[in-house]
Amino acid sequence: MKAVLCFLLIFAGPVFGDPNGDFAACCKNKNISDTCQIFCNYVSKSSDVLQAFTNGKCNIEIDGPSFYQCLENEKDNTKCCKAAGVGADASLDFCLDICDGSKPLKSDMKYFKCKPFEQVIFNCGKDSH
């Protein structure tokens, strides 16, 4: 019984990670500001996060690139986003950039136009754990 329990703790733990804990740890490791770290979870509403970047709780230039890397679990979730319709409108295809957490996102106000996809982008990040 003890051997089975040890196996589960050692091997199942990384497989069934804690998305919110991973997101928060990533933000902390990337030195995201304290006022922005409170949004480093998948429980926060995506609209609240967007508002935090709009009203200055999160600094778009300082916190933005790292925040979105952490949101996407530092993985390229472009396929997930495409499958959910992000980038289908050619005039908003740059929204797919947000889905690629494997590299820092360059700060640009154009990403505020991606609001229609904010929940899909959040979900793809969460589902990548």
UniProtKB/TrEMBL annotation:
Residues 1-17 form the signal peptide. Residues 26-124 form the Domain of unknown function DB domain. This is Domain of unknown function DB domain-containing protein. The keyword Signal applies. Keywords: Signal. It comes from Panagrolaimus davidi. The keyword Signal applies. InterPro entries: DB (IPR002602). It comes from the Eukaryota.
